[in-house]
Amino acid sequence: MPLSRFPRRALLAAALPCAFTVHAQSATELDAVKVTAERTHASTGALGDRSLHDTPFAITAVGREQIEQRQVVSLGEAFLLDPSVTTQVSAYASGWSSPIRNRGIDLSYDSYRVNGLQVSSWGTEWPLEVMEQVELLKGPGGFMYGFGQPGGIVNYVTRKPTDTATLSAQLGWREQGIVSAGVDAGGRFGNEQMFGYRFNAYQEKGETFNGGEVDRKVAALSLDARLSDAVTWTFDGVFQQRDLSEESPQYYFIGLTSLPRAVAGDVDNSIPGSYYDTRSSLLSTALDWQISSLWKATFSYGFTTSWNDVNKIFAYIDDTNGDYDVNVYELGGKSEWKLAQALLQGSFQTGPLKHQVVAGVSHQTGLGWDRPYEWSTIGRGNLYQRPTLRHDAVGSRVLSRGSETVQKALFASDTVDVGHGWSVLLGARYNDFENKGSYHTYPVTPTYAVMFKPDDAWTLYASYVESLEAGSRVGTDYINAGDVLDPTISKQLEVGAKIESSRWSGNVAAFRLERGANIDRLTDVGRLLVQDGITLYEGIEASADVRVTDALTLGGGATWLDPTYDKLSPDSAGQQGNRTVGAARWSGVLHATWQLPWVEGWEAYAAGRYYGDVWYDADNSLKLPDYTLFNAGVGYHMQAAGHAVTWRGSVENLTNRRYWSNAGVGLPRTFAVSVRLDL
């Protein structure tokens, strides 16, 4: 495809020469340090079990150690140190679609997996407290996982049974007055330690920083049975109940070209009677068969559900004085997914060529039920004055079938080692996807990659992947509300390098991604949502972590992005070349971890994150300015009566910066403390 404006071929070629340059500078032998990839291997869908280091795609993994060190309670906070990821929803608010945005693109509510099984993030997040790791596969995941938006795929990995007995309890407090408690137990039992278990329970309850109330309960159970030396059975169950009441409104700007003064994140503008309640669950089982030292088969089945009951407030700000219409949206529904999959992976050799192959078949069904929605304007409000309104739900709770999808897939890949550090990946997924009553499509989504490993520490790669994105249902803000848009194919070319050297690690990637554009079109009778042209995302991201001394680790990263609307029709020509909504051109992060030398067991961390300015609308008429946030924390490890005790304290938004973000009003300065006792 023709490349214009910026010298884009140079952009896409930049990563590999840069990688070779860095490699030439890394002759010093140092010790391995990994800050964002604490687990060597991860599930990559149709690519099977692979080392993150040996995949030809950009993947960020955040492990248990980081989650606990920074007292993370939301997905956006988990990926704080990745400059390409921005938060869409705070920990104590209900999201309308996805908690995060990657490389300028929202993930959709169905861009999430738990142990590879599709789950919903509609209005909620999956509980990090019961997860061992959370992974973000950047870009289109069509070959690996099937349908999905091209911003990426998030996969949560649950905690697994431990070979030695473990038992710990934790207490925590977070502003304004949220108290939490959790327990983690694991071990093995039975003849020759045949059976393993891991149980986690967690609850938090109290007043949020902006006057709302949260009550969240989580339980998770993981079991396994070593039926023989070759066969292992596993089971995972996760349940979460989250009730939010009187959360602050979700803010929108209507017809503005300049912003009202930002309010503090702890301002209470909630409407009594409002709530957003969700229930999420997952049940899965699998049988792993180690056929030989080279071949493995996995048969799995999972069932996931999501339910919500909503009486939510939307504030449409229409002047710079902060005045807004107070709108209430009552809705509810539930969804179910069932997935069965058989996967075979192994290796063999043909002459001088070594093959690593993965093949599989899957069948997934999705069902959705909706209740009648109620949308109404109940009055006016102002950002700087406490509302006096109240709204209690009045809508019907009778559910009716809203959607049904069936996705059947065949997939296979072959990674061929051709010698001298070079390998080639060829893969394809055949999808039979039916959205019943709307469309039926049969795409084949390929992936190709070339990798070069000059030594064990380095992986240099170039990859191409396509992904089919299901057409979305048009929302109630449009006169074509309820229409289902056609599915579109996204395409991404990426070149990059990964390094895990003795005392430092890093990655760099340059990418070019095309996806179909959804454009607002104004007509004499109202606003339409239509598919027109493409959105084009080109950029470079880079990050690195260095252990300067045994006590001090420094890290940082930056992302440059050129996100534009392109190839629009004459009806939308006014937006041609504009920057896409919500995508920053620059973002960056610096962070440090320090083992304090004067007291054994003390550690401290600090992070500064820069968020670039973004356009609020496709016409590029209203801009949200850039801002920088600082977080910090300390931890202390000690022994008490022969048991390990860990104390932690942290603060987010250290300078109490007021700002507008993609998520609306920015978060205030927030303190949190916790203590964990290992029994």
Rg on CA atoms, Å = 25 Å
DSSP strand count: 39
Category from helices, strands and their pairing: mainly beta
Helices, by number, come to: 5
N-to-C terminal Cα separation, in Å?
61 Å
Q: How would the global form be characterised?
A: globular
Strand content: over 45%
What low-confidence regions span 5 or more consecutive residues with pLDDT below 50? 1-40
- Share in helix: under 10%
- Biggest sheet descriptor: 22 strands, antiparallel, barrel
Mean of all residue-level pLDDT scores: 88
Write the layout of secondary structure elements.
Blueprint (H helix, E strand, L loop, with lengths): L7 H6 L1 H10 L16 E3 L5 E3 L7 E5 H6 L5 H4 L6 E3 L12 E3 L2 E2 L5 E3 L2 E3 L11 E8 L3 H4 L6 E7 L7 E9 L1 E14 L5 E14 L4 E14 L4 E15 L4 E4 L21 E15 L5 E23 L5 E28 L2 E18 L3 E9 L17 E20 L2 E14 L3 E3 L2 E9 L5 E12 L18 E13 L3 E20 L2 E22 L4 E15 L19 E10 L6 E10 L2 E2 L7 E2 L2 E14 L2 E10 L7 E2 L2 E2 L4 E9 L1
Parallel strand pairs: 7-10, 16-18
Antiparallel strand pairs: 1-2, 3-9, 4-5, 5-6, 7-8, 9-10, 11-12, 11-39, 12-13, 13-14, 14-15, 15-17, 17-18, 18-19, 19-20, 19-21, 20-22, 22-23, 23-24, 23-25, 25-26, 26-27, 27-28, 28-29, 29-30, 30-31, 31-32, 32-35, 33-34, 35-36, 36-39, 37-38
Can you offer a commentary on this structure?
With 679 residues, the protein is mainly β. It has five helices and 39 strands. It has a 22-stranded antiparallel barrel. A hairpin with a 3-residue loop joins strand 27 and strand 28.
Quick structural summary:
This protein is mostly beta strands and 679 residues long. The N and C termini lie far apart (61 Å).
